[in-house]
Predict the 3D structure of the following.
Amino acid sequence: MIDINQLRQDPEKFKTACQAKNVEPKLVDQLLQSDKERRELLGKVEQLRAQHNEITAKLKTNQDKSLISQATTLKDELKALEPRLAKDEKDFIELLQQIPNPPAEDVAIAKDESANQVIKTWGEKPNFKFKPKDHLELGEALDLIDVKRAAKVSGTRFGYWKNEAVLLEMALIQLGFTNLLKQGFVPVIPPVMIKSKAMQAMGYLEHGGQAESYFLEADDLYLVGTSEQSIGPMHGDELFNENDLPKRYIAFSTCFRREAGSYGKDTRGLLRVHQFNKMEMFVFIRPQNSDQEHEWLLALEEKLVQSLNLPYQVIKMCSGDLGLPAARKYDIECWLPSQNKYRETHSASSCTDFQARRLNIKYRQKNNATDFVHTLNGTYFAERLLIAILENYQQADGSIQVPKILQAYVDKETIT
């Protein structure tokens, strides 16, 4: 959530931010009008409350009929106005939550992903002497993937990972915890269902986000679409001490997405599914350190991909591809031989104080003043990384080499 005081002072800045993120700029005018009406009504209600309290105090010692009449009139006026104020407050918050986090100054302003920038390329693409198979063909031949039985049990966009594919994932989990605990991250297995208030506060429901989410209406619970959605709210309405920051978590959980709007996209295999596992880094940090932390999270992701010797490129997202909470975002895209192109496997986002304002998470500075923390998140690995491993490490005979760094965990060099 943005700072309403900043919006009052510079509405044009937020209209520009809306336009940069493909959000209707008129929302800013609607918000300002709502804010004006809300504050005017609030002032009137507070004045009536003060008058009523004053007369009520007098009535304790003086039961004058005119005072009783005034108290009754004021009480009736308050009964009429207070529901209107509650509605105005609700409408104001709903509009405020639709205003996106402005893009960082170094982010390119453009409409969609076609303007995203490739800022780095690493590794050599495999030079196969044969036509490479895709992950599904490889996985079915080696009994690593079963989408047919998953379709029977759960429907489309589901799959069973089996045998050595499971061991590869467990190896990545163990490697992730081993690497990140050395960097001071706290390991967490979080809930995968969170209250609607918590999901709303993370900023993922507005502007189409709700269509992507699974919602259990009877329980008022959302299934998380990414692991950080249950980490941010952990510290809702809390106050950190400055010395406790940065607070870093590494969370492992299953995630769920409807994949709304993806009809016909990536229907083969397990690249785009409704359920997947993920390790996510999440950081609460002082504002002055958040840009440096963002680059560091990206470096940690790159270090993992490099240790697996997977070719990749780093993408810096333009404003139109950022989403509501992020001020800046990087993607890592690993090479998929079967598609002859790079596909996203990781992301790293800086959300500045946007989520912290919605969650009311602050820190106390050395001068005793308080301020909102900044939040950042970054994928350490998701199951798409398994797809990249299967395809890049395939051999002419249909077997798959195990990346050297994972061999000790899997206890074999080749999957046959």
